[in-house]
UniProtKB/TrEMBL annotation, chain A:
Pfam families: FMN_red (PF03358), PAS_10 (PF13596)
Domain of life (superkingdom): Bacteria
Any one GO molecular-function label of the UniProt entry: oxidoreductase activity
Protein name: NADPH-dependent FMN reductase
GO cellular component terms, A-Z: cytosol
Region (Disordered): 330-416
Domain NADPH-dependent FMN reductase-like, residue spans: 1-146
SUPFAM superfamilies, per the entry: Flavoproteins
InterPro entries the UniProt entry points to: Flavoprotein-like_sf (IPR029039), FMN_Rdtase-like_dom (IPR005025), NAD(P)H-dep_reductase (IPR050712)
Composition-biased stretches (Low complexity): 369-399
Gene3D superfamilies noted in UniProt: 3.40.50.360, PAS domain (3.30.450.20)
């Protein structure tokens, strides 16, 4: 179980942070608690430009992927800190990442009141229609007299408070499980298992079972994602160790929702160039997760050329490049003529030769080579490649997830 | 007994700091305060725009940003304060809460200050929930303001009541606003007199 614990303050020192760190350690056998900070978020404003919302987008992603959220709430002037309120405003502005999300409120303070007022306020805010969270009722974690309730090394040493915290957190985990079991019967099952397991799909070139189709996608060393013709994230192949880690929670999101704000213009440019027939492929070689990878976007078209969507085809090319660099093709390559002979001897290898050597010689020309069977594409894809790289390059460097479609994010902001 | 407000003219004419509680470029709450400043031109109403105020952070020990110092000066020198409070998520905006946190940390210009809370919203509730919450925040020990409670000004459906030029043409609304201002000025004078007496007595 994945739980996100939000530190409800931007202060450098906070007992509310210490409480969450204690919970992370104390409850490690019950849940995987990730602590998230809010100090790097911009102050909420409806006028904040998209380019300044990357941190917001990342947080939304985390919220979406979590099974439950814990909010720790200090108290400033009888209310929650502005920094925490700003975070909730981000998480509820043109997005529904908090909708039906199990949430729990905890708090520590120096005084006896133990942040009681701010917790009441926090609960009110979380059940307001804009948030619509599934708030854990009751189960109040109000730890007062902070400097005496915690030891120097951050352990909760007040036994009564500890017992209460254990009870409340256990209830929270059960509360989450209620919603999880509901979800399992729905979306999750249908993703892991084809719905009709015994059916065949008859292609002009042979037939496959649904199971075979699923497993083919899981086996080939490239991962595939599909944005459908209405620009919604429709499907991803269930390949192990994906370069882009996708989450079923993101299925059905629009392109704007599921990409980091900075990447959206570049992605839409690619998709639109496919939709209007200008291009059929865009290639982006880049480093991901510490190795050389290749992302290729292809226009998915019906046999009559009608646009069906965009597929993103991604994989590590380290293995192929190593083969190339270690001279796997060098002897064959000496005589140009023998290439063709090889092709007839071993067509599988020859195909890969064409594809991969093409790529390393000149990635732009290669685009046209690779897709020549589908439709001959105009070469100027090159311009767009650079655009896309330039724009998304920054986010790639910051974090690999930055590329993810999955991105829960739903960045409310980006829709705007 | 000598009161700090000893000039008859000053008694009738108040200097009022009017804080617009939104950081959005388009804000009916700011427009409402600007209308009030124009309409009640007999008083000196200083509309404070909080768009440039950074998020409050207690790591700023000992100093405050210049934009906050400017607001501190303007609020300190005012006889009374009006705060227009929008409502996000049934609650006070983070932008306004941040300003109040700044004004209750290293400086405390709202202490003993008579404050009237008003609000506008495009929905039916007219920011009523955030006003209730704001009242609770303003009476907390760190802020310690005096909240005017005789009249409650909630403007719902602001998009239809405030026109493109920022004017209110609805007579009923204007009359009620005038009543609120009249009552509030009496309240503010009474509070200021009491605070002055208290200070005198504690000398």
């Amino acid at each position: 179980m994945k739980i996100l614990a939000l530190v409800g303050t931007n202060a450098n020192f906070s007992y509310n942070r210490i409480l969450l760190k204690y919970m992370k350690k104390h409850f490690r056998q019950m849940a995987d608690i990730e602590i998230a900070e809010i100090s790097q978020l911009p102050a909420f404003s409806v006028d904040t430009p998209l380019s300044e919302q990357t941190e917001v987008w990342k947080l939304k992603q985390k919220v979406k992927a979590a099974d439950g959220i814990i909010f720790s709430t200090p108290e400033y002037d009888h209310g929650i800190p502005a920094a925490l309120k700003s975070t909730v405003e981000w998480l509820s502005y043109k997005t529904d990442v908090l909708k039906h999300k199990p949430v729990m409120v905890v708090g520590v303070s120096y005084g006896r009141q133990a942040s009681a007022r701010s917790q009441v306020q926090m609960r009110q805010i979380l059940v307001s229609p804009d948030c619509d969270a599934n708030l854990l009722p009751g189960n109040e974690v109000l730890i007062g007299n902070a400097s005496h309730s915690f030891s120097k090394d951050g352990r909760l040493i007040n036994a009564e408070a500890r017992d209460n915290l254990e009870n409340c957190f256990t209830h929270f985990v059960k509360y989450i499980q209620i919603f999880e079991s509901v979800n399992k019967e729905g979306l999750d099952m249908s993703i892991k298992q084809p719905t009709i397991s015994e059916a065949y799909i008859n292609f002009p070139t042979g037939r496959l079972t649904l199971k075979e189709v699923q497993q083919i996608f899981s086996t080939i060393p490239f991962e595939i994602d599909l944005i459908d013709s209405t620009d919604h994230f429709a499907w991803f192949s269930d390949k192990p160790n994906r370069e882009h880690v996708r989450n079923v929670a993101s299925l059905g999101e629009t392109v704007q929702e599921c990409h980091p704000p900075l990447a959206v213009p570049a992605v839409m440019k690619i998709i639109n160039s496919f939709r209007n027939g200008e291009k059929d492929v865009v290639t982006r070689p880049l480093w991901m997760n510490g190795h050389r990878s290749l992302i290729q976007y292809y226009a998915l078209r019906d046999v009559n050329g009608h646009y069906l969507g965009t597929i993103e085809f991604t994989g590590s090319v380290e293995y192929i490049l190593n083969l190339f660099e270690n001279g796997a093709w060098s002897t064959d390559g000496n005589t140009g003529a023998s290439k063709h002979e090889d092709a007839s001897d071993n067509s599988e290898e020859a195909d890969s030769v064409d594809a991969s050597t093409g790529a390393s010689e000149s990635s732009d020309d290669d685009n046209t080579d690779n897709t020549s069977e589908v439709v001959a594409t105009p070469a100027p894809a090159a311009n767009d490649d650079t655009d896309a790289d330039a724009t998304t390059g920054a986010s790639d460097a910051g974090s690999v997830d930055a590329n993810d479609d999955e991105a829960d994010a739903t960045t409310g902001a980006s829709e705007n | 007994m000598k009161c700090c407000i000893n000039n008859l003219k000053e008694v009738t004419r108040l200097k009022i700091a009017a804080i617009a509680g939104s950081n959005a470029n388009h804000s009916y709450n700011r427009m409402l305060l600007e209308f009030i400043a124009r309409h009640f031109s007999d008083d000196d109403i200083d509309v404070i725009d909080i768009r440039q105020v950074p998020m409050f952070n207690e790591n700023y020990k000992g100093k405050i940003p210049e934009v906050v110092a400017d607001i501190d000066r303007r609020v300190s020198s005012a006889d009374a304060v009006i705060i227009a409070s929008p409502e996000y998520n049934h609650s006070v905006t983070s932008a306004l809460k941040s300003v109040i946190e700044w004004l209750s940390y290293e400086v405390h210009p709202l202490e003993n200050k008579p404050v009237m809370i008003i609000g506008a919203s495009t929905h039916d509730q007219g920011s009523s929930r955030s006003q209730v919450q704001l009242r609770d925040i303003l009476i907390s020990p760190g802020v310690n303001a005096y909240i005017f409670q005789n009249e409650e000004f909630f403007m719902s459906d602001a998009a239809h009541i405030i026109d493109k030029d920022g004017d209110i043409t609805n007579e009923t609304t204007i009359h009620f606003l005038e009543k609120c201002m009249r009552e509030f000025k009496h309240y503010a004078k009474a509070i200021n007199r009491m605070v002055a007496e208290k200070k005198e007595a504690n000398k």
